[in-house]
Amino acid sequence: MDLVELVSLFPTLAGLAGLQVPPRCPVPSFHVELCREGKNLLKHFRFRDLEEDPYLPGNPRELIAYSQYPRPSDIPQWNSDKPSLKDIKIMGYSIRTIDYRYTVWVGFNPDEFLANFSDIHAGELYFVDSDPLQDHNMYNDSQGGDLFQLLMP
């Protein structure tokens, strides 16, 4: 089983269509006309109708998936699912593996596109084997904050 991210959809579809996949986005990428995040996942497909199979066994698996999700406040409100950039006050950053999902919700400055990792609003930690529906948040029970400190560079 491999983990994939939604951001990999574009480079994968572009590759399937035979289009040139744009280069990865540099940091910062504000003035770049076209770039992409994610990875072309064609190597994970088996093409049985073709003479050659582009699937290459032995390639490293996609072991970690990252995502982020904006929120306008700690409390759900009318624009919680689609806040305007100016309304984003909190950003959730998640790390997902086959075994767990870890999310930390931190303060966010929409004017400078900066997360404040010292301003932690909440955390989530779910173990997939014992909690596949992610109903039991173990963040406060398992020193989730300590885990966050270990993951920070």
Automatic annotation (TrEMBL):
Give yes or no: UniProt keyword Metal-binding: yes
Q: What is this protein called?
A: cDNA FLJ59900, highly similar to Iduronate 2-sulfatase
Which InterPro entries does this one have? Answer: Alkaline_phosphatase_core_sf
Q: Tell me which PANTHER family the record gives.
A: IDURONATE 2-SULFATASE
Gene Ontology MF terms in the entry:
hydrolase activity; metal ion binding
Q: Tell whether Metal-binding is among the UniProt keywords.
A: yes
Species this protein is from: Homo sapiens
Q: Which SUPFAM superfamilies match?
A: Alkaline phosphatase-like (SSF53649)
Keywords attached to this Swiss-Prot or TrEMBL record, sorted alphabetically, are:
Hydrolase, Metal-binding
